[in-house]
Amino acid sequence: MAVADISGIRIPDSRLAREAGEFIRETESTLLFEHSTRVYLWGAMAGHRNGVKFDPELLFTAAMFHDVGLTAGFSTSKLRFEIDGANAARDFLRSHGVSEENIQKVWLAIALHTTPGIPAHLDPIGALTAEGVMMDLVGAGYNRFTEDERTAVEAAYPRGADFAEHLLQALYDGLEHRPEVTQGTGLADVMADKNPHFHRRNFCCLMRSSPWACEDCGSN
User: Cα dihedral sign for 161, 171, 116, 48?
Assistant: First the structure.
């Protein structure tokens, strides 16, 4: 993977980072690969801006692998795609002799990157991965990045005019065979948008129709 310096952020050029990038480039579509690269750049920029110390290799690996669970290699998986990606990153890092402590940081970063309210309280790898994801998907924190930073990232790894629709389709394509794992997450919105027969599970209904509720009714 080519070394790049983008608005002061350098993509890691270690053997581990190069092999992570090469693996993801070969495994994912260009859409997902470039999205993942932008996730690293946004996360690293946010870290530098806020004075957060982080390991660039670990952040880069988390960013690279965070969507790999959507790819064809997991077309029969019944796990959440985040877990598939986290497990794939764990296997990759173990094959490179990375410590279990650092592997766990990356695993959690990927496993929880779609879970609002939690990543910000994780190790910086988890916090910055989620921050990069949300910046690239929905523009969270958009104005905290300078215009020069946004322009530099866009020039190197363009989103394209139809990025949102293409990414939503990629999410759906990777989850269509396992819609049940999206229940209770924002990804259920994707399923409902793409599939008119998908029904979101309602937690209140689950509680009110549970065996406990029936038992309570019988005791009245």
Answer: negative
C-alpha to C-alpha distance for 195 and 173, rounded to whole angstroms: 11
How many CA atoms lie less than 13 Å away from 60 in the CB half-sphere?
A: 21
Q: How far apart are CA 42 and CA 74, in angstroms?
A: 27
pLDDT band of 5, cuts 50, 70, 90: confident
The model's pLDDT over 29-54, given as tens digits with 9 standing for 90+, comes to 999 999 999 999 999 999 999 999 99
pLDDT digits (tens, 9 = 90+) for 86-123: 999 999 999 999 999 999 999 999 999 999 999 999 99
pTM of the model: 0.94
Residue for token pair 């929880």: 112
pLDDT tens digits for 54-72? 999 999 999 999 999 999 9
Report the distance separating Cα 184 and Cα 21, nearest Å: 31
DSSP letters of 35-96? HHHHHHHHHHHHHHHTT----HHHHHHHHHHTTGGGSGGGTT--S-HHHHHHHHHHHHHHHT
Q: How far apart are CA 114 and CA 116, in angstroms?
A: 6
Facing residues of 10 across strands?
A: 5
User: Contact at 8 Å (CB) between 141 and 43?
Assistant: no
